[in-house]
Amino acid sequence: MEPDADVVLLDPKEYMEISWAELRSMVEPSFAERSLIYHKDYLTTATIVTSSAVNITEDSVLTADGQSLAYDYLVVATGHVLASPGSRAERLAEFQRDSGKIKSSESVLIIGGGPTGVELAGEIAVDYPEKKVTIVHRGSRLLEFIDQKASKKCLDWLTSKKVDVLFKQSVDLDSLSNAEKLYKTSSGETITADCHFLCIGKPLSSSWLHDTILKESLDNKGRLMVEKDLRVKGYNNIFAIGDITDIPEIKQGYLAQKHALLVAKNLKLLIKGSPASKMATYSTGYPLAIVSLGRKEGLAQLPFVTLTGCIPGMLKSKDLFVGKTRKQMGLDA
């Protein structure tokens, strides 16, 4: 987009994080050196404003530090609520702390059996096979967004690595006894663990939109309703991409990238004066999923087949697509 327009990026962080590399970085902090990228390194001519949006009007975005940023076209991509620090150095330090916590623990409790919890359990079980890893999951099976066969294969892999998985239970963190490291589950079981990681879904970062011109464009789940060209319903010059949209698909990083590429293409057309009818439209595909299981293995749900082992591992687990993503951004892999 940069050569075609004056681009302004508004973000409370000074960096972009390749989010699917987070869990590897928790066991190998040096991995984050490549997955945390300063905005200025890939947006060489854009204006970068390090703040948060607090309001949107018909022609400008108001920021938490009192700036008013005018726009002709606006893209909302606020995703889920994240508590990441604004400084890249602080984020690297967080990974160092997480790694130290895992290294110094003999037992680790992971709360949540979605992709984040499963991939973190896999990373720890492969790098530290001597550690006791337990997953407590509220659902009746792991990775509920994929089919049951794939879910069972994932459970079998974790079990083979001596990971304990407890289903249909939650953990009351308020009842935690720090001195004894005892965790009580909703069914009355007691788990002993030296540390825990909370890997449950985060809320959408859309509550602030209720006080903006886009309040009528939110559905009852707080998602922005979009047309097939990814313009927000009711607006000709405002787009939305990523997890915040109401597109009926699994919320995954590679799909957010597809949204971004399509919107960039459509913005170039509009800026050149092309009619809206020429814009590209987005259609959902078969739900693909690749879940890394440690460094060499993985699980892939593809059309008509589910694979586990080294082949899906080669697709994702070794580098987690970090080199590919960096190249797409014009950086060294």
Give the gist of this structure.
The chain has 333 residues and is of the alpha/beta class.
Class from helix and strand fractions? alpha/beta
- Give the rounded overall mean pLDDT: 94
Radius of gyration, CA atoms, in whole angstroms: 21 Å
Q: Biggest sheet, strands in spatial order? A: 11-10-9-14
What keywords describe this structure?
333 residues; single chain; three-stranded antiparallel sheet; four-stranded parallel sheet; alpha/beta; globular
Report on the structure:
The chain has nine helices and 18 strands. It has helices spanning 22-27, 32-35, 39-42, 88-103, 115-127, 148-160, 253-271, 310-317, 322-328; strands spanning 8-10, 15-17, 36-38, 47-49, 53-56, 60-63, 68-70, 74-76, 107-111, 132-136, 164-166, 182-184, 190-192, 195-198, 238-240, 289-293, 297-302, 305-309. It has a four-stranded parallel β-sheet, with helices on one face. The radius of gyration is 21 Å and the shape is globular. The chain starts with 7 loop residues before the first strand and ends in a 5-residue tail after the last helix.
Give me the secondary-structure topology.
Layout (H helix, E strand, L loop, with lengths): L7 E3 L4 E3 L4 H6 L4 H4 E3 H4 L4 E3 L3 E4 L3 E4 L4 E3 L3 E3 L11 H16 L3 E5 L3 H13 L4 E5 L11 H13 L3 E3 L15 E3 L5 E3 L2 E4 L39 E3 L12 H19 L17 E5 L3 E6 L2 E5 H8 L4 H7 L5
Parallel strand pairs: 1-4, 8-15, 9-10, 9-14, 10-11
Antiparallel strand pairs: 2-3, 5-6, 6-7, 12-13, 16-17, 17-18
